[in-house]
């Protein structure tokens, strides 16, 4: 099965629903309701192989609201012909225990906005990754 098809599996559907149930609020901004689950880390190994294990690793995806998702996508995913940027995962709060959410007091939304950069600061990671 190709990596693109993992997103269509029952296993992923279940993982996604579970994630949204556990994180009804966006894991990035902790303000907006989460509406989708997206990979925020590449599940491609350094050897260039898509790893099913990484794909289904909860540390590799997040429940996000639309605006955070599009911001992450535009910033890192090579819109407008820019180079892909590494380090998207650096701007996303690490998940500790399963279902644990970071508190919005731990890092301010403005700090996150700063870290995420501007729309002009664009870059191509998620576009081939199923939500
Ligand atoms: Zn958000």
Structural class: mainly alpha
Largest sheet, described in full?
2 strands, antiparallel
Spans of at least 5 consecutive residues with low confidence: 79-83, 89-108, 117-129
Spatial extent as radius of gyration = 14 Å
The secondary-structure element order is: HHEHEHH
- Number-wise, the strands total 2
Strand order of the largest sheet: 1-2
Q: Strand share of the residues?
A: 5-15%
| Shape field | globular
Distance between the termini: 17 Å
Bound molecules: zinc ion
- State the domain count: 2
| Share of helix, binned | 25-40%
Number of helices: 5
How confident is the prediction overall: mean pLDDT? 72
Task: For the structure shown, list the relevant keywords.
single chain; 131 residues; mainly alpha; 5 helices; binds zinc ion; disordered C terminus
Give an overview of the whole structure.
This protein is mainly alpha-helical and 131 residues long. It folds into two domains: 3-93, no CATH class; 94-131, no CATH class. It has five helices and two strands, in the order ααβαβαα. The chain has helices at residues 3-6, 10-22, 52-55, 66-76, 109-116; strands at 36-39, 61-64. The longest helix has 13 residues, at 10-22. It is globular and about 35 Å long. Residues 79-83, 89-108 and 117-129 have low confidence and may be disordered. Bound molecules: zinc ion. Residues 26, 28-29, 32, 64-65, 67-68 line the site of zinc ion (ZN).
